[in-house]
Amino acid sequence: MVLGLFSISFAQSGTNRSEVIKRLAKIDHPGSSWAVRAADAPLMFTGQIMAPDAASDARGQAERALDRLGVVLNSAGGDISRVLRLNAYVAEDKDTPAIEAVVAARFAGAPPVVTLVRSSLIVKDARVAFDAVALISRAPTDVEIASGNAVMPAGAKVFLSGVSGRVSDLPTSVQETMEKLSAISGHLGLGKRDVVQVKIFLQPFSEFEAARREIARIFSGGPVPPIVMVEWLSTAYTEIEMVLSGRALKPQPQAALTFPTIPGRTLSPVYSHVATVAAGTPLIFLGGIDAGHSGPPREQLKRVFEKLGSMLFEADSSYRQLVKATYYVADATTRMTLNEIRPVYYDPARPPAATAVVVSSVGRSDRACVIDMIAVPRVGPK
Questions:
Q1: Share of the chain above pLDDT 70, in %
Q2: Which candidate, 163, 345, 155, places its Cα nearest to that of 246?
Q3: How confident is the model over 350-368, as pLDDT tens digits?
Q4: pLDDT category, 19, cuts 50, 70, 90?
Q5: Omega before 204 cis (within 30°)?
Q6: Do 90 and 362 meet the contact criterion of CB atoms below 8 Å apart?
Q7: Sheet of 157-165: strands edge to edge?
Q8: CA torsion, ordered 50, 53, 57, 58, to nearest 10 deg
Q9: Which residues sit opposite 244 in a β-bridge?
Q10: Which of 17, 40, 223, 377 has its CA 20 to 30 A from that of 155?
Q11: What is the pTM of this model?
């Protein structure tokens, strides 16, 4: 770590060794961490959680939304102190400081990684929505889904890159995209019962109900996993990514991190279609990584990847151990520059699964990009 870049501190929580959480906290940004490492244990993936009503300002809505998150986590044997990753979606940039202040106060003692972007929301007049990943104490043997939230059992995990749909209308695009993702998971021996989260980037956002109905139809006959909806700027209607439990994988992955090849899918030097994490492997969440200042997109992305490398080093990981990347960029120029910079840092034989989307803002008008990552620890000699 280069001390001139940013300050860090280590914190550890957990009642027993099986659920120890290590946090690389942001000293200058209370309530959030650069990185959070957690042992292989049952995880809850939530849907998007909002305040029960939209009558108050952004601060009030954020408070009540996080109250609801606490209730959801408690129902599965978790609590706010075991949140690993928190994503925030704000309706307007002007609400970012108020929402960050609420998060800072609520998570002061156990900061998760926090990534914030701007998006339209599915509830009229809503100012903010959250989704979270958290450790829980329940130990199911299979995926459990209830009330729009999912519990993933300990064990292998599978991350599918975003797949886009470019057909004539949004519902058909959702159907086509989900069929592609189902074919990929089916090649791995996994099915609908293994899905713990569906994240959809869509436009026009006003048609979110049609997208949600189509996803529910695809899962008809079984529980619908958490659906996270984010507005994107694109000529395509949708891009969808999924997270699945890998307990049914045959054979089970032996290496901590593998990138299976998928028939009919062209290999890329900057992203993999699938990443699998073996049972017993800790996960390292990294998030909210932006340049920290304004400037040309090229300079901001250079700074982002420098920060990412420092965080991976401090978390005992590396670029080669990246599992899943989500890149939120503020315009098409930044998106093209992202394509240019990734080959500088990534091993072309093992880039992470990834989704890269243009959004209306990453929460601050002078920032060009923010990234959200998952990694695993390095193996071999330290």
A1: 94
A2: 155
A3: 999 999 999 999 999 899 9
A4: low
A5: yes
A6: no
A7: 227-231, 195-202, 238-245, 157-165, 274-277, 257-258
A8: 0
A9: 158, 195
A10: 223
A11: 0.94
